[in-house]
Amino acid sequence: MTGGDEGRSRTRRPPAWTTRRWLRVGVAVSLTVLAVLGAAGVWVLGRTGSLSKNLVDTRSPALTAAIRLESAVLDQETGVRGYGLTGSPEFMTPYREGLAEQKKDERRLERLLDGDSARLDDLKAVGTALAAWQERIARPIAAEPPGAPSRLATERAAEGKKAFDRVRAAMAGQQARLQADRARARDDLRGTVALRNGVLGSIGILMLCLAALVFEGLRRGITRPLEQLGADARAIAGGDFDHPITATGPADLRRLSGEIDSMRRRLVRELAFSENSRGVLDAQAVELQRSNAELEQFAYVASHDLQEPLRKVSSFTQLLQRRYGGQLDERADQYIEFAVDGANRMQVLISDLLDFSRVGRLHDAHQRVDLDEKLAETLSALSLGIAEAGATVTHDPLPTLVADPTQMGMLWQNLIGNSVKFRSPGRAPEVHVAAAREGDLWRFTVTDNGIGIAPEYAEKVFVIFQRLHTKDAYSGSGIGLAMCKKIVEFHGGTIAVDPDHRDGTRITFTLAPEPPEGIRRA
Predict the structure, then answer these.
(1) CA proximity to 402, closest of 312, 470, 493
(2) Sign of the CA dihedral 326, 329, 330, 335?
(3) Are 386 and 393 in contact (CB under 8 A)?
(4) Max Cα separation, the chain?
(5) What is the C-alpha separation between 68 and 248, in angstroms, rounded?
């Protein structure tokens, strides 16, 4: 390894900890501390219980039993001494009761002091001294006949006093050591209780400190970084896209902050590109609007200016046909007829083109229009053609909308006129107009039983000057449905051929109850 590599190795930062790792380590340390504290608490409580049990169940009862043993021995001594001095049998009662109590107290002391060899040795010393006194003094005197003072009591008075003093001394030593044992047990218990209280208090303080450390760790490691991240995100959401994301906290939160900041920078770049694109589109839209306006103006001017010379051509060709018809040869008459027919069709085409250019430009007087009345006016205008075709036109109740009345009349006239014109041979036309509310729009359908429109021509029929039939089969300029499409779209709707309808044609279109934003109102 080179020196540079060694330097980089020495300065390389250790891998950052993630939130999960911090939580795992924190939980492990917390559980370890709690386990240690719990073990210490359990030990202290167990030690306190053991000392308390030793004091209550052993040391104090042993001292009490020793005192009761002394009392029983004193009863024996009193009874023997009284019986020896008086020979009265009643003094034997305390002696016998003292013997019984002595045996019971000795058994109790043996049970309480089981395992304590030093105190059992004390009990054995008491028993030895007491047995010697009973053998030399108590039992011999008690065996004397009652009724008279005992001679043996007088003879052995000095010996009995010394023997009983040894018993007293043994019991005094026993009681002193039992008292000392009880005092030590009491002191140990007090010390252990103090230790217990200290340990439990320390446990409580340590748990509070641990809780505070956990809370502070969560606040610094998770809550504060998340709050910082949330504040940065809100600033960006508020429109400050140049506001950077500050990476803080554990590794995964810093990585998340970096990813969000990377997304922010990408959004900034995309927004800049979008702004540039929108500027280009706005410029193109303005240019397209200007171009469309110029085209509409050109179509209007061209169609309007062409009518005057076209009328002259039509008038002179008709005059030529009337004056010289039949005077020239058959070919000349045919040429004249062609010229007249072409001039007439050109007049119709220019007139339709003029009407088409006026949609949305001259006819723009929005007001409340009763479509029932407007349809009735249209049927009245088309009554001659309807009667000649033997057509039947029915309709559902139609709504009242805010629209341009002239354009609504042109819409009905073209749709009803097409249904009557493109009828099936040998079958009377039947046309039905329906309307239904769909959300914020009204959907209208015009259904007929005519020749229909093939699915492949469903879009083509709405293009201006597009014809599906020759002029010999069906008259017209090919502008009608294109004009309908322009009128409907001008009023914020859509128009199409229903592809699912088979027996005839069904044109469906939508209109808004109010004109869309941006359309001028009258």
Answers:
(1) 493
(2) negative
(3) yes
(4) 203
(5) 78
Angle at 91 between CA 89 and CA 92, to 5 degrees: 70
CB 427 within 8 A of CB 449: yes
Secondary structure (DSSP) of 279-341: HHHHHHHHHHHHHHHHHHHHHHHHHHHHHHHHHHHHHHHHHHHHHHTTTS-HHHHHHHHHHHH
Helix axes 19-54, 157-218, angle to 10 degrees: 170
Q: Which residues of the chain have pLDDT under 50?
A: 1-14, 473, 520-522
**Could you tell me if 87 and 146 are in contact, meaning their C-beta atoms sit under 8 angstroms apart?**
yes
Residue 14 is predicted with a pLDDT of: 44
Predicted confidence at residue 199, as pLDDT, reads: 83
The secondary structure of residue 509, as a DSSP letter, is E
Residue 67, pLDDT score = 92
According to the model, what pLDDT value does residue 13 have? 46
Which residues on adjacent β-strands are paired with residue 363? 359
Helix boundaries (H) for 327-479: 330-358, 371-381, 383-389, 405-421
**pLDDT of 436:** 92
Residue 104's nearest CA partner among 140, 73, 138, 150 is: 73
- How far is Cα 482 from Cα 489, in angstroms, rounded to an integer? 11
Both structure tokens of 438 = 């769909």
Q: Which long-range contacts (CB under 8 A, 24 or more apart) does 212-216 make?
A: 214/26, 214/30
Neighbours of 138 (CB within 10 A): 26
Residues of 84-102 as b/e, b for ≥16 C-beta within 10 angstroms? bebbeeebeebbeebbebb
Which pLDDT tens digit goes with each residue over 32-68?
888 888 888 888 888 888 888 888 888 889 889 889 9
**Residue 222 DSSP label:** I
Q: Are 55 and 191 in contact (CB under 8 A)?
A: no
